[in-house]
Amino acid sequence: MTTEIDENTLRYDRMVEKALRSVARTAIEEVMEDGLLGDHHFYITFLTEHEGVQIPEYLRERYPHEMTIVLQYQFYDLSVDDEFLRVTLSFNNIPEKLVVPMPSITIFADPSVNFALQFQPLDEDSGDNDTPPPATDGKPDDDTKAPAKEQEKGEVISLDQFRKKD
């Protein structure tokens, strides 16, 4: 049985995505107010090709599809709202302001508490929600931490790397 999506169909998939993205936004808002407490830190992966992403051209060339940043020790001017995450990070000792549209974020993780969300991209116009998660092709630079297991070009990030080992 196939369910056709039309204007009369409740889009639960979009509702869930919106709710999950609000969890990431709320966590960032709490860090804006109180700073990172304890061992908390965030891995945030986003699509660099997404409309509205503002990063320096050399980073776009280095990470043409997807980039992961880590908010842990050295980040500045952190802000978030329903539409954008903004943060200044240091790349090779040069501070760079990044503007990341919230819909471009594909992964939000806090490895300190074994928490990760992987978002499914939804094309608002077509209603297409069968798009597979994007593959990763990059790792953070020197001033951010790379995931425990470095990813090869074209691999999908496994969230297992964020789970604590017993």
Task: Describe the model.
β6 and β7 form a beta hairpin. This protein is α+β, with helices and mostly antiparallel strands and 166 residues long. The longest helix is centred in the first third of the chain and has 23 residues. It has one domain: SspB-like (SH3 type barrels), CATH 2.30.30. Helices cover 17% and strands 27% of the residues. The strands form two sheets. Strands 2-1-6-7 form a four-stranded antiparallel beta sheet, with no helix packed on it. The chain starts with 11 loop residues before the first helix and ends in a 48-residue tail after the last strand. It has two helices and seven strands.
Oligomeric state of the chains? single chain
CATH architectural type: Roll
Gyration radius, to the nearest Å?
16 Å
Give the end-to-end Cα distance, rounded to a whole number of Å: 43 Å
**What integer is the average pLDDT?**
75
Structural class computed from helices and strand pairing: alpha+beta
How much helix is in the residues? 10-25%
Strand order of the largest sheet: 2-1-6-7
In a nutshell, what does this entry contain?
With 166 residues, the protein is of the alpha+beta class.
Fill in the keyword field for this structure.
166 residues; SH3 type barrels; globular
